[in-house]
Amino acid sequence: MKTNLAKANNKKLKVVQINGGHNILKKLNSMGIFDGSLIEKIASYNHGPVIVKVMNSQLAIGRGMAEKIIVEEV
Amino acid sequence: MKIVLVGNPNVGKSVVFSYLTGYTAISSNYPGTTVDILKGKTRLCNNECEVVDVPGCYSLEGESVAEKVASEIIKSKDYDIIFNVIDSNNLERNLLLTLELLALRKPIVIIATKTDIAKNKGIDIDYDNLSDILDIKIFPVVATAGIGFSVLEREVSAVFNNFKLPVPKIEIPSDITEKWKMIGEITLKVQKIYHKHPSFLERLEEITTTPVTAIPLAFVLIIISFYVIRFIGEGIINYVFDPLFNNYYMPLVDRFSSFFNEGFLKNIIFSKNMTPLEGFSVLTTGIYVSFVVVLPYVFAFYLILSVLEDIGYLPRLAVILDRLSHKIGLHGYGSIPLIMGLGCKVPGIFSLRILESNREKIIAASLLFLISPCMPQSAMIFAILSKYPLIYTGIVFVYIFFVGILASYVLNKMLKGTSDDLFIEIPPYHKPVFKNLVFKMRLRITQFLLDAVPFVMGGILLINILDIFSILDLLSKYFAPVLNKIFSLPAQTSSIVMLGFLKKDVAITLLAPFNLSLKEIMVSCFFLVTYMPCLASIFVLLKELGKKITFYVIVFNLLISLIFTFIFSQSLKLLF
Known about the structure:
The structure holds two protein chains of two kinds.
Chain A: E1 2-4, E2 12-18, H1 22-30, E3 38-44, E4 50-54, E5 57-61, H2 63-67, E6 69-73
Antiparallel strand pairs in A: 1-6, 2-3, 2-6, 3-4, 4-5
Chain B: E1 2-7, H1 13-21, E2 38-42, E3 49-53, H2 65-76, E4 81-87, H3 91-102, E5 108-113, H4 115-120, E6 123-125, H5 127-134, E7 138-140, H6 149-162, H7 176-190, E8 191-193, H8 200-207, H9 211-257, H10 264-270, H11 282-311, H12 314-320, H13 322-327, H14 335-341, H15 345-350, H16 358-371, H17 375-384, H18 390-414, E9 423-426, H19 434-468, H20 471-487, H21 494-502, H22 504-507, H23 518-530, H24 535-575
Parallel strand pairs in B: 1-3, 1-4, 4-5, 5-7
Antiparallel strand pairs in B: 2-3, 6-8
Helix pairs in contact in B: 3-7, 5-7, 9-11, 11-17, 11-19, 14-16, 16-18, 16-24, 18-23, 23-24
C-alpha cells in the first residue's frame, strides 16, 4: 500500500515516488533517497520531523518534506 | 602544492586538517561545524603544501551556501590534489561525493576516518579491494588518535616527489540514480556488516530519538546541566580560587598599596575602597571578578557544552526543537547557529551560511542575539546570581528564551514567505575524545582570557576614573530618569550600559561592585544580554549579511529589549 513517509509505520520502506521540485529532489537524492531506494522509518514526532535510516546513517526530515516522499512497505 | 580536503559534513575533516597542519580547527560531533574555508600549511613530504579545508558537502550539486562554496572551490580545479575524507561508518553514502570527485579527473586520494568506531560496530571494509575497484589510494586512519597518518605521509611524499600524481581513470555514470546503483554494487563487494548486540551508545541513541523518551530526557538533561555548571563553578570558587585570592593574593596587594602615598595615583590603582566587589580597584575587584567570579563558570560552561558537542547530542536537540522552530519561522537547521551562538556569537553568525533563504537568516540572526546569551554572558549571569537560589538564574534564562521565541514569532509573521523543512543528518554518539576536549577547552578559555579579562580590567579602571572625577554621578543623574522609571534600575548602572556597547558580553560582571538587589540584578542581566549585539558580532554581521539587514536586526533587538526589560521589571515588582 502506498502512503507518504509522514504517515507510514515505523518499518522498512521502499521509496516509490518523490513529489518535489528540483531542489528537494536534489537534496534527497544526494543523501541516498531516490526512487527505488530502501529506507527505514525509525521515529516520528507529532506534527514534527520524521527520522529515517538511510544506508548507514540517520536523517531527520521535516514533516512537509516527508509528506512529499511516497513509500510502500516491503 | 595545494591540497583540498573534501568530504561529507561531520566526517572528521577538521580533525584531519588539524593533524596535517597543526592548526587549530574546532571539531564537534555535528554536521556543519566548518562553514568558513580554513587554510593551513603542512610539511607533508618536505614540500611546503597548502591545505584547504573545504566546508562539508554531500554532493557537488548542493543548494546551501556552504555547499555552493564547497562545490565552487572543487569545480574550479585550482589545486593539485584532492584528499577525499570519508567516514567508514557510512561508506555507501560517502561514496556519492567520491564518485563525483573521481569524475573531475583530478589527482585524488581517499582518507577513511573513524575506522576504529566502524570496526566496533561490526562494519568490516576491505580497503584494498575498494582501492583496486576505484583505482586510487585509500588510507584508513583514526584521526583523533593520529593512527594511520605516517603511512599517508610516507606514501603521499613519495607521490609528490615523483611529481606523478594519480589521476583516476574509472568510468563514472553521469546520472545520480546510476551512481547509486554503482555504489550499491561496490559496497556489496567491499563491505560486510556483522550483526552485533547494540552497544550502550546505540541504545542511548534510540531512547534519545524516540519522542516519548527523547522529549522528557531533553528537559532533564538541560536541568542537570544547569546544576552541574553551578556545582562545578561554585566548587572551584569556594574551594580553590576564593581561598587563594584571600589568603595569598590580597595580603600581597595590601603590602603593595602601602608603598604608595595617599593621593591621586593611589586612588586610580586601588580606588577609595580596596575590598573586592565594593570598590573599583583594578587590582582587587578587577582580578576578583575576572578570575574568582567568572572564570570558574566559564570553565564549567565550556566543559558541559564541549562534552555535549562531542557526544553528538546537539543535532538531536535540533530535532526535538524542530516544531517550535517552525512556528517561529526557522527549520530545525536554524537551531545550529543558535546552538553555536551559545558558545560565542561570532561562529554562530558564520554558521548562518548553512541557512538558505535571507528570510531565515534575518530571523535566525535576530534570535541569535535575543535568545542565546553567549558563554561568557551565561557564565556571568550564573556568577552574579550565585549567592541566590538557582531558581532565579533559571528565571532569567527562561525569560530570555521566552522573549526570543516571542520576538521571532512576531518576525515570522512580519516577513513574507515560509521556512524550509528540516533536513539534517543525525550523527551516531561518540565517546568524547579526551584530547579533543582538552584542546577545545584550552582554545576557548584562552580566548576568554585574552578577550574578556583585559576588558573587565579596563572597564573597572575606567569606572574608577569616572568615579574619581565624579563623572559617574553626572552620568547617573542624566540617565537616572530613564533607567529608574522604565527599568527600576539604580542610576549608577548607566556607566555599565554604556561600556556594554563596547563589549557587552562581559558587561554583566561589572555590575558586581554596585551592590544591587536581586530584582535589579535580574533585570539588568536581561537588559544587558539583549539590548545590543557586541561590537565583534556587529562587525561580523555586517560582513555576512550587509548594512541593511544588520541595521534592522540591531533596531529590532533594541526595541524588543526595551519593551521586555520594562515588562520584566514590572512583573518582578508584582511578584516579590
